[in-house]
Write a sequence for this structure.
């Protein structure tokens, strides 16, 4: 299990990234997740630190996915949905 902990970023940071990437806004992601914009920003920085690369290009009032961010965004929603579905099945 410790290998997984070192290989997989936190679920909270992945969920924050998914919302920010889908909405293309840290502020809108924060509103959707009922947390502060600073918390979203901190989670994204944590994920970028874990992956050792930037996921967003930050502009004055805009964000854009980097190639690494686009790669993560291309498949992450499917995997998060799979985890949610698994949790639903276990609850049943």
């Amino acid at each position: 299990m410790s290998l997984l902990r070192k290989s997989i970023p936190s679920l909270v940071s992945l969920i924050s990234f998914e919302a920010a990437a889908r909405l293309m806004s840290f502020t809108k992601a924060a509103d959707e997740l009922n947390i502060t914009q600073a918390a979203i920003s901190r989670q994204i920085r944590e994920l970028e630190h874990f992956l050792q690369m930037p996921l967003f290009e930050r502009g004055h009032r805009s964000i854009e996915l980097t190639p690494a961010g686009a790669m993560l965004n291309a498949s992450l929603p499917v995997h998060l949905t799979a985890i949610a579905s698994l949790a639903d099945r276990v609850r049943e």
The chain is about 75% helix and 5% strand. The chain has one domain: 2-91. The chain has a mean pLDDT of 95.
